[in-house]
């Protein structure tokens, strides 16, 4: 099978063409760096995505605070992870790097705060 990928790992956005059968890669062309090949292999064997979102913040100077995962999770589980994130409410104050959920859904990925928000004074 032949398939084209646009690499999203670095700013180059290389168009990578792959000839493969199942998870067995026969030929890769177009990658501008080694990250491109690694990206294609992962996309074919275990596609993963990172999530950035926001959660409700109670008693904060802002009504929401931004959060993100520290590591990508399986693409097939994104909606399950988002269901967890949608149900979260935090209490202000919060700091950058605060862990909201450790090892979300058993994956080696934490949900962390990405913005400092003080409590309403």
Q: What is shown here, in short?
A:
The protein has helices at 34-45, 78-86, and strands at residues 2-6, 15-21, 24-29, 48-49, 52-58, 64-69, 73-74, 89-91, 99-101, 111-113. It is of the alpha+beta class and 121 residues long.
Polypeptide structure, described:
With 121 residues, this protein is an alpha+beta fold. It is 17% helix and 36% strand. It contains two helices and ten strands, in the order E-E-E-H-E-E-E-E-H-E-E-E. The strands form three sheets. The chain has a five-stranded mixed β-sheet, with no helix packed on it. It has a three-stranded antiparallel β-sheet with strand order 1-2-3, with helices on one face. A hairpin with an 8-residue loop joins strand 1 (2-6) and strand 2. 15% of the residues are buried.
What integer value in Å does the Rg equal? 18 Å
In helices, the fraction of residues equals: 10-25%
Inertia-based shape? elongated
Q: How many β strands by DSSP?
A: 10
* Overall mean pLDDT: 95
Strand order of the largest sheet: 8-5-6-10-9
Spatial separation of the terminal alpha carbons: 61 Å
* Major sheet characteristics: 5 strands, mixed
Determine the strand fraction and express it as a percent band: 35-45%
| Discrete helix count | 2
Briefly note the structural class of the backbone.
alpha+beta
| Run of helices and strands | EEEHEEEEHEEE
User: Which residues form runs of ≥5 with pLDDT under 50?
Assistant: none
């Amino acid at each position: 099978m032949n398939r084209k990928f646009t690499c999203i790992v670095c700013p180059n956005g290389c168009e990578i063409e792959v000839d493969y059968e199942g998870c067995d890669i026969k030929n890769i062309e177009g990658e501008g760096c080694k990250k491109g090949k690694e990206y294609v292999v992962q996309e074919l064997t275990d596609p993963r995505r990172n999530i950035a979102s926001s959660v409700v913040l109670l008693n904060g100077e802002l009504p929401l605070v931004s959060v993100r995962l520290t590591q990508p999770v399986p693409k097939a589980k994104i909606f399950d992870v988002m269901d967890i994130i949608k149900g979260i409410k935090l209490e202000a104050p919060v700091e950058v790097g605060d862990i909201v959920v450790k090892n979300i859904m058993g994956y080696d990925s934490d949900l962390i705060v990405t913005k400092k928000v003080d409590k309403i004074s």
